[in-house]
Amino acid sequence: MRVGVFICHCGSNIAGTIDVAKVAAEMRKVPGVAFATNYMYTCSEPGQDEIKEAIKREKLNRIVVAACSPRMHELTFRRTIEKAGLNRYFLEMANIREHISWIGLDKEANTNKAIESVKMAVAKAMNNKPLYSQSFKVNKRVLVIGGGVAGMQAALDCADGGLEVILVEKSPSVGGMMARLDKTFPTIDCSICILGPKMVDVAQHDKIKLYAYSEVDDIKGYVGNYQIKIKKKATYVDWVKCTGCGACMEKCPAKNSYDHFNFGVAPTRAINIPFPQAIPKKAKIDPNYCRQFVKGKCGVCAKICPTGAINYEMQDEIITEDVGAIIVASGYGLVDMDKFPEYGAGRYPDVITGIQYERLLNASGPTEGHILRPSDKTEPKTVVFVSCAGSRDKSCGIPYCSNFCCMYIAKQAILTKDHIPDSQSYVFYMDIRSPGKGYDEFTRRAQEDYGAKYVRGRVSRIYPKGKKMVVVGADTLLGTQVEVEADLVVLATAVTAAPGAPQLAEKLHISYDTFGFYVEGHPKLRPVETNTAGVYLAGCAQGPKDIPASVGQGSAAASKVQALFSKDMLESDPAVAKVNENTCVGCLKCIMTCPFGAVKEKELRGGRIVANVIETVCAGCGVCTATCPCGAIQLSHFTDNQLLAEVNTICQK
Amino acid sequence: MSEIAPKELRIVGFLCNWCSYGGADTAGVSRFRQPTDLRIIRVPCSGRVDPLFIVKALLNGADGVLVSGCHPRDCHYTDGNFYARRRLEMLKQLLPYLGIDEKRFHYTWISASEGQRWQKTVTDFTNQIHKLGPLHSTTEAHSGS
Prior knowledge:
The structure holds two protein chains of two kinds.
Chain A: E1 3-8, H1 20-28, E2 33-39, H2 45-57, E3 62-67, H3 70-83, E4 91-95, H4 97-101, H5 107-126, E5 135-137, E6 141-145, H6 149-160, E7 164-168, E8 183-184, E9 189-190, H7 191-204, E10 208-211, E11 214-222, E12 225-232, H8 247-251, E13 271-272, E14 284-285, H9 291-294, H10 300-304, E15 317-323, E16 325-328, E17 332-334, E18 351-353, H11 354-361, E19 382-389, H12 405-419, E20 424-429, H13 439-448, E21 453-456, E22 459-465, E23 468-475, E24 480-486, E25 488-493, E26 495-497, H14 501-508, E27 535-537, H15 547-564, E28 569-571, E29 577-579, H16 589-593, E30 599-603, E31 609-613, H17 623-627, E32 633-635, H18 640-650
Parallel strand pairs in A: 1-2, 1-3, 3-4, 6-7, 6-16, 7-10, 16-27, 18-25, 19-20, 19-25, 20-21
Antiparallel strand pairs in A: 5-28, 8-9, 11-12, 12-15, 13-14, 17-26, 22-23, 23-24, 29-32, 30-31
Chain B: E1 11-16, H1 20-29, E2 38-43, H2 51-60, E3 64-69, H3 80-94, E4 105-109, H4 115-132
Parallel strand pairs in B: 1-2, 1-3, 3-4
Helix pairs in contact in B: 1-4
């Protein structure tokens, strides 16, 4: 065994708090280590060349690189040693940056810890065996979860590239949040006018199969071969027959149904088409409000429907689809108003949220684009916008910035003036965050051309006084308290993860942060990948972002899928479980514990039963290895011998 | 150093690759200061951790063992951490029969984004082990593996 050890300085990142030369010198004393050196940047081209040269010159057959996290550069160095003719699994990494040099300043303790960590890696490397991957076929179909602008962009880009796309949208129409917006900043372009054609493209594309009002129920499989169960929720309307004429909606007597599309700004009918541009333009019954369901008799829509599409007996349906990759664009939610007792906790009708105001501004909204106070349907003359309602507020559990509120408040202030020329807008803000092309100019326009009064400070309380709402806040620039008597108050409520985001992440086996947003592969360099191969992210599911960023991520995720599908065969990770048939006693406990059903029974000649691992199905968790009473099933690359070699190195003294 | 660091003790950490190892990376990237006693072994899943590894470590010279995986229900391998939880809880109850204080062993769940939580876990556990002192007194020479 001839181990080569390469200690990286990583500039001063590692060398600043670890004596790298000493680590290298100590390694040279370790039995089995034939060569040890330290280098400024091991991951650089000359750094990698040095490894390759040393492998040839020193006839090295195991390589240990002590540098950053293997989650960062393991693949880089595996490729390096492979180019020099070694099996890629002969590499071990010691994480002396994230786990040592960056977490303490005591150089002596760090150097000592680094020496032991590298020794552990050497001990493991000496037990490493060559592993060879198998290739398997890729199913070149992609599942897109979420039909908002990010999901639609991803679906269209994949479909235009010739891939079959399954698009699952949980609400009755695609379009997402963007379909609810009136105008978009900073151009005041009409939102649905630019989104509508995309929605139509999604519906008409022969490569896109759209499941609206459906949810992903279950996901099985692995990159290249997923089996998806999609739950088509009952709409109680046969969408094959429904023509979207809207006759049912006009006659429905249940007029007080909650309007999910309009965020409850005004009621809707129990049977409804969410908005005129809906795709698919089909009706759906809300059984919580429908008299047929609540009272057991009505049937008006069934009588009126010219095509006989109404079916009160409809059940949820489960559909199975096989795909090779998944793009998650499940969007975002908004914090509930009851989080704000100081703003009335949703009790005052004239304190509304930004998205509700958007529906009031919109020509297809419940007021047909006339701004009317919800309480008495009069035109407000004084409108107060409160930014950061929840955002950047640790007491609400939301320390982050919701990204786009500053911009939409400026837009709404401009639109308010457009709609009601004698109105006055006030904006309470903490900071104006407008980084982006044309964004800062836009917020200035709101102030300079449209006369919106910006008050730097937070609002402490909102209370009713006659027909008015009194907004009490601070002006931190003047150092005074301000009170504005407003006709309407608009809260820029914080962006949260979509409801059910953690549950979806658990089905996908991807990670989510404390707030429920999905965690990308690397915050800088892998922004749309996840740590689960074959699953990609787009849009606000990953974190709050505006439309152009969501569209960009949608396209980026699509291009990642295209790249993945550019090969017909994928290589499996050979770090899977293997059975030693000589020692296996055939207890088959491994079959019971395997989360993937990758272990099967196998009869040997002579009738003895042993376990057998299907290599392409095994995901390499090692649960079976820890289960096996006789150590017969071993997870390659993490065998008992390899891990115990590390344990023994630590516990030597 | 402002504080006189007591002599390091020997703490072994088994961290799952997908969550806790990432959490420890996050803590490093965020430069969250931590005690230096811990030595980390990367495993694919907390379900890979054989309780015997922990026993062997504690009998052969470790003063404490920490295992950390993905939060329950958030396992990269569906339910590997549920197996881990059962095994490790069982081990925790068995340790006293081996003459080992169960406080020397701790298992927890930390996600890749919880750098701060990782820092707290390492700091608390290291302090706990220091409070207990070395498991293997210098006079009592233990026979190696």
